[in-house]
Amino acid sequence: MLPRGLEVRSGPGCPVCVTSVSEVQAAIEIALSRKAVLTTYGDMFRVPALRGMSLMKAKAKGADVRIVYSISDSVKLAEKLGVEVVHFAIGFETTAPTTAAELIRGVPENFSVIVSHRLIPPAMEYLLKSGDVAIDGFLCPGHVSTIIGSEPYEPIAKAFKKPMVVGGFEPLDVLASILMILEQMRDGRCEVEIEYSRSVKREGNVKAKRFMEEVFEPCDGDWRGIGVIPSSKLRLREGYERFDALKRFDVELSFEEEMPRGCRCADVLKGLIYPWECPLYNKACTPLTPIGPCAVSVEGACHIAMKHGVKGPEDAFNLEL
Ligand code: SF4
Hints:
By secondary structure, this protein is α/β, with parallel strands linked by helices. It is built from 15 helices and nine strands.
């Protein structure tokens, strides 16, 4: 439905895809040590880490790895089992408040967290600063913006002179948001507008932000395939450090990066290529036999494109390129 010349590219917005190899490896190490039950979200289960290892393979080797739907399921498990339970907490500002809320509410002493929460605005700024990809405007994420509001994007829009629109998830939301970006470009405006106004306010969810502020502080974060982005990750503040699973089990992040051979997830995450430009796309790498994280997660660009039968540009654009 989009006119010729207008391209919409996926960015680093899939939490499973951007979680670093070293964090997945740390979770695997804790699980394999058998000192704790490891809980995580379903998509993270199959994500490959070093030398093809994954939490699923760790489970096959006898580690106690369980899939949960929320951190509260993990806390309940810790209360029920009475043994050490570690929750692998991934996600952006969308899930970080739930991690914070559980810790504020009070968790048993046998519960701890691998905090892998990341922040979206620093990643947007990083992409713009890198200059690798020519971005004319941003369709800002609806869920994240429901928490943080539209305000944090304002300095970025101003500094880099880019139109930004916070969009919703329905097809009409997406089309309306793209139209709003195009109108800003036509009028020479670089503002932050909210299309998803039924959920997003400029100030965001004040209570959720307060929870995050109390429990976390920003630190530099390693994004899979992208590298370290300053102040893009969250870590536990001093009063909550005793729930840090890495400290409790004396596990250090190795920062050893390993992308599977031929996998171009890093370029997909940066919007440099479309998924079908990866040589492994829909051949060696499929949602059932994923090689990179972008094909594992239901939020991954490769997974989505394959699921919808996109074989190449002709399916994606309905254009002769
Ligand atoms: Fe990575 Fe597979 Fe996507 Fe290639 S097709 S970029 S290997 S997830």
